[in-house]
Amino acid sequence: MSGRKTEEGLNDLTLLGNQNTKYSFEYAPEVLESVDNLHSDRDYFVKFNCPEFTSLCPITSQPDFATMYISYIPNKKIVESKSLKLYLFSFRNHGDFHEDCVNIIMNDLIKLLDPRYIEVWGKFTPRGGISIDPWCNYGKPGTKFEEMAMHRLMNHDLNPEKIDNR
After folding, report:
1. Deepest of 1, 2, 71, 130, by most Cβ within 10 A of its Cβ?
2. Which member of 57, 96, 114, 133 is catalytic?
3. Is 79 annotated as a binding residue?
């Protein structure tokens, strides 16, 4: 059988294939897991779309709903997708502003993966007649990705997107 070998990072995974998955209802960054990037010799994007992200307003405790977009260029590690799903679910009862949520997600993924580049965009559904769509990014300092991050930051909203999740 060809494909990824057990010694290529699979031994460290505890969630994938586990039939006793526990969903944390409190913010749980420790659930995130990674595996070795077998293609670290090239630059490529990994994109995740989570259309069922929820968190709570820190003042009113009312639920906030969003589609969370995560895109990154891996370095030595990639995030395991089931752990990412459980991590994003852990925001369900987490009270924070939209801007905080996207930055917390990005910071946790930077800590886990040390990516070359990452961006996180939350497209929150309107509440009270207004939607908030925070976007943040990061490029590894001292590399071309730091320049890429600045360029994307300065140009991220030049072509407003088609709103398709509202």
Report:
1. 71
2. 57
3. yes
